[in-house]
Design brief:
single chain, 6-stranded antiparallel β-sheet, 6-stranded mixed β-sheet, alpha+beta, Rossmann fold, flat
Length: 1020
């Protein structure tokens, strides 16, 4: 975990918002947190620890008590930390429980603790992981870092006065810390799993032993030997009782068969009697069936004359309907007659009212003549209202300008007084500005000198690197040139050999022209065949390497010239006036900043004099302008007052020509609307009454015609009905029916007639079936006597009773035999299971004892693994401790237990080279303990980083402890930390030691003041 940025607000001695950007210190910095006692150095570590875990680096300081007393009451105590872990970035924001002023009213309200966690992607976008929940944030932080707060304090922070905790921790404490750091919980789970499995096996064995006892007790046995003894006794008894049971069962089954046969005969006699009874009951229904047959016959005859009866009824219904319609028409005719008389009366009333229309129209014309006068009156009133507003506005402006004159006069008096004070205060500004210019020049020269010196150092390093690079490139260029020449030589040799192959005796050589070839080039098998392209490539490579050499040579010459120029500038600058001042840079800067602030304040005051003069002149001009405006507005007010009186008189004159009730335009509009509505209503009423009278007359005429038509139709239908009634009486007299009612009673619906016919058919079929069944049953029981079932049942009961007694005797013996067999089987299974459990316990029990440290050395599996890891840690730690202690001390893991009652395997001893003996680390002095604790923390960091899957310990904070070291040990400790920093760790040191401040270029200077502390970041 590496902190990237820390924001502290109202926490510890920091009253306001203080931001610390650790990225300004570099990628893996070694830096000093410096400042006076109480300034807040340790509070920075407390803030980091609080942001992550909600607790400070020391238990005696509760987070809720860390609020700054100098902070504003409305400022919330809050810590925000951006940190990086395993390539991912996170932000945590946390505030403790605190009291803050209420938003309204007096008193305070309780702000509960909050914690929020975000992840930060590569684009800097935040993704919320936990929102404002302290517990969830703590759990998530522990999951991300792999450490709880106690482990964080011991391995990533060496708090003030607490650096010995990890060094002096016992095996149990160190096991928790190392187990978390190296992620060895799998071995703890193996221990627990083995212990659980062994415990389960022991529990199963005990359960099995109790189960065996229970099996024997369930059979009323004391030992397993009794089972075989009882088997020998029960075998002959079981055989004898089985034979008796089989014989008794056979006798019982024969009796049951005889009973069944007798029961069948009895049931057949009962069925014969039942059939006879059903036949007798059915014969009693014969009279009813005969009666139903007569009803069906009468219905058939009635159906034949039903058509004439229906026609007679239709004619009766038609006559009744016409007569009813005539009654209704007469009623409607009478109603229409009354409505016609009423409409005539309404028409007379409407004519009389309609005569008032002319007078209403005359009145409307008179009122319309007022409209033009009312418009003139409204215009006059509007003008008078505007005049009143103007008069009121000018009066208000007059009063306002009077107030402005008084206000500006007071301001002029006040500013003239302030201007005199400013002239007096800025009288010495010129001398101070001259002094400031001189100091500014010296400051620029000092700053320039420091930059030149930095450039000299940087240039020297670059010059050395460039010279080294030049030497390297020179070697490469020389080598490339040799290779190019060699390649070219090989190519020429190859060309000569190729030419020699083509030479022929007495023919001229294409090179020299000679016809004699005494020594032609011979092929060499050891020589490489080089192509023209390879030669060209080698030349290009040599030229390229030469260009690189020349380029770096040019850079080297430029660097030397720059260095000479810088040295010359430094010499010239050092000889400038004021550069030989005895003031230190710190004192000079304090004097310069103080004077700069004083001059700035005086310049601001002098600038304000000009502003005051401009403002004063402006106020005087404003006063003059206000006085002019006051005179003008007074004249305007008098003029508008006279105009208001004229306009009000015009309104009064126009009002006298119009009746009071019509002086408002709305009153005239309402009156005109009322008269128009009355004229319209009277006209509509007359037209409506006339129309209604005509409609009533038409309806009355139509209804009189309808009554006459219905009366003629009724007379005709009555004549036809009398003829049909006479014919129907003749039909009844010729039928079997005495009266018309008799005929109606005989009529049946089709459903009723079908149902009665089906009842008759079913009765006849059932009667014939019963007679056939009785005949067959009588024939079957011929020559048979009905048995006495009482005697038969007694025989069955006696046989069954005898069988049950014998069967019970057999069941008793058989049940005991089965019980003994079951017990034998269960015991066999139990012994098999017990043997398997004992075999498993022989494995898991021993493994559990060994893994859980229940042996003589009391070292568990996890502690054994951790002891190996601890040895690796101690190897790294001892190298550093040996260096810091000048070869005297080394850290060792104690091989024997000091207390057999406690767990062991992870205790530490110190080996003293001066005495050649080992002793407890608790015997070390304060300075020695600090070196040992620091070495252990650094060694632990190295080993954890080296193991895949371990927690990343890429940050270490050390709070004090260096003051207990002598100068040589201090130098060795710093050298050790520098070596560790080179491996990519961030290391922060809190110390008052002056030598550290001089040796370490990167610092966080914590500066205290009466209003709270603040932090300055000092970089190289």
């Amino acid at each position: 975990m590496k902190p990237l940025k820390l924001s502290i607000q109202a926490f510890g001695p920091f009253a306001g918002l203080q931001e610390i950007d650790f990225s300004l210190l570099g990628q893996s910095p070694l830096f000093l947190i410096n400042g006076p006692t109480g300034a807040g150095k340790s509070s920075i570590l407390d803030a980091i620890c609080f942001a992550l875990y909600g607790k400070t680096t020391a238990d005696e300081r509760d987070a809720s008590e860390m609020r700054c007393d100098q902070a504003d009451a409305n400022t919330l105590t809050e810590i925000t930390l951006d940190f990086e872990l395993a390539g991912k970035q996170y932000r945590v924001k946390r505030s403790p429980q605190q009291d803050r002023p209420k938003a309204r009213g007096d008193g305070f309200t309780r702000h509960n603790g909050e914690a929020t966690l975000w992840s930060i992607d590569k684009q800097g976008e935040l993704t919320l992981m936990v929102a404002r929940k302290v517990k969830d944030t703590n759990q998530q932080i522990e999951t991300i870092t792999g450490l709880n707060v106690e482990q964080f304090r011991q391995v990533m922070v060496l708090p003030q006065g607490k650096f010995r905790d990890l060094l002096l921790a016992d095996s149990a404490q160190r096991e928790k810390i190392f187990g978390q750091l190296f992620q060895t919980h799998i071995y703890r789970r193996i221990e627990d799993q083995l212990k659980q499995q062994a415990s389960v096996i022991v529990h199963d064995i005990r359960d099995l032993e109790n189960q065996i006892k229970g099996i024997l007790q369930s059979a009323e046995l004391n030992t397993e030997n009794e089972i075989e003894q009882q088997f020998e006794i029960l075998k002959p008894e079981l055989k004898k009782s089985l034979k008796l049971k089989q014989h008794a069962n056979a006798s019982f089954q024969n009796v049951l068969l005889e009973k069944q046969s007798s029961q069948d005969i009895v049931e057949k006699f009962a069925e014969l009697e039942s059939s006879k009874k059903k036949l007798s009951d059915l014969q009693l229904q014969q009279a009813g069936i005969t009666s139903k047959q007569k009803v069906v016959d009468a219905a058939n005859k009635a159906q034949k004359i039903k058509a004439q009866f229906d026609e007679l009824n239709r004619q009766k219904d038609q006559l009744n309907k016409i007569q009813q319609q005539m009654i209704e028409s007469v009623q409607l005719r009478d109603d229409a007659d009354r409505e016609f008389i009423f409409s005539q009366k309404e028409l007379v009333k409407a004519k009389k009212s309609f005569e008032e229309v002319d007078s209403l129209k005359a009145e409307r014309q008179q009122i319309e003549s007022y409209v033009n006068k009312i418009n003139q009156l409204d215009s006059a009133k509007k003008i008078a209202t505007e005049s009143a507003l103007k008069e009121s506005k000018s009066s208000s402006e007059f009063i306002s300008i009077q107030n402005d004159v008084t206000s500006v006069t007071n301001k002029i008096v006040s500013q003239e007084k302030q201007l005199g004070n400013l002239h007096q205060e800025t009288s010495g500004l010129g001398n101070k500005q001259i002094e400031l210019v001189s100091l500014q020049q010296q400051s620029n020269q000092r700053e320039k000198l420091a930059k030149l010196q930095d450039k000299i150092v940087s240039g020297s390093k670059q010059l050395i690197q460039t010279e080294s690079e030049f030497e390297r490139l020179t070697g490469i260029a020389d080598k490339s040139l040799r290779q190019a020449k060699q390649q070219e030589m090989f190519w020429h040799s190859g060309q000569a050999m190729n030419l020699a192959k083509e030479l022929k005796q007495n023919q001229p050589c294409p090179v020299c022209g000679s016809t004699s070839h005494p020594s032609p080039a011979l092929p060499d098998n050891n020589q490489f065949v080089i192509s023209k392209d390879q030669v060209e490539q080698a030349r290009l490579q040599a030229d390229s390497d030469k260009d690189k050499q020349q380029k770096i040579l040019n850079q080297l010459n430029e660097l030397k010239i720059k260095q000479e120029q810088l040295e010359k500038e430094i010499t010239e600058l050092s000889n400038q006036p004021g550069m030989s001042s005895e003031l230190t840079d710190h004192d000079f800067n304090e004097r310069f900043e103080s004077l700069k602030l004083e001059v700035q304040m005086l310049v601001e005051k002098q600038a304000s004099i000009s502003t005051f003069n401009e403002t004063l002149s402006g106020h005087k001009l404003t006063l003059q302008s206000l006085n002019n405006s006051l005179s003008q507005i007074q004249q305007l007010h008098e003029k508008e007052k006279q105009q208001l009186l004229i306009d009000q008189q015009a309104v009064k004159h126009l009002s006298s020509d119009i009746p009071e009730q019509y002086q408002l335009k709305t009153s005239v509009v309402e009156a005109l609307e009322r008269l128009s509505t009355s004229v319209k209503k009277l006209t509509e009423n007359f037209e409506k009454a006339n129309s209604a009278n005509q409609q009533c007359l038409t309806r009355l005429t139509e209804l009189k015609t309808t009554v006459e038509d219905k009366n003629r139709l009724s007379i005709s239908l009555r004549s036809e009905l009398e003829i049909s009634a006479s014919d129907w009486e003749q039909v009844i007299s010729n039928s079997i029916f005495d009266t018309e009612q008799h005929f109606c009673n005989a009529l049946l619906t089709e459903v009723e007639q079908t149902a009665i016919s089906q009842q008759i058919t079913i009765f006849i079929d059932l009667l014939n079936d019963l007679k056939s069944i009785i005949k067959l049953q009588t024939k079957e029981l011929k020559d048979k006597v009905e048995p006495d079932m009482t005697v038969v049942n007694l025989a069955v009961e006696e046989s069954e009773k005898n069988f049950k007694i014998i069967e019970q005797q057999w069941l008793k013996v058989d049940s005991r035999v089965k019980q003994l067999k079951s017990v034998t089987k269960k015991l066999k299974q139990a012994h098999t299971t017990n043997k398997e459990l004992e075999s498993r316990y022989a494995i898991y029990g021993v493994l559990s004892d060994v893994a859980n440290g229940r042996t003589s050395n009391k070292i568990s599996l996890q502690r054994f693994v951790l002891s190996v890891l601890l040895d690796d840690v101690l190897i790294q730690a001892s190298q550093r401790l040996s260096l810091m202690s000048k070869g005297r001390y080394q850290l060792l893991r104690r091989q024997t237990s000091s207390d057999n009652r406690k767990v062991s395997g992870l205790e530490l001893d110190i080996e003293d080279a001066y005495t050649g003996k080992s002793r407890s680390v608790s015997t070390l002095s304060g300075g020695e303990s600090f070196m040992a604790a620091l070495s252990l923390a650094l060694g632990l960091s190295d080993v954890v980083q080296a193991y895949a899957g371990g927690i990343k310990l890429d940050t270490l904070f050390i709070d004090e402890g260096f003051g207990s070291l002598d100068q040589e040990s201090l130098d060795l400790a710093i050298r050790t930390l520098v070596d560790l920093q080179a491996t990519g760790r961030m290391i922060g040191i809190i110390s008052h030691v002056t030598e550290l401040k001089e040796q370490m270029a990167l610092r966080l200077d914590v500066i205290s003041s009466k209003t709270g502390s603040h932090v300055n970041i000092i970089t190289a």
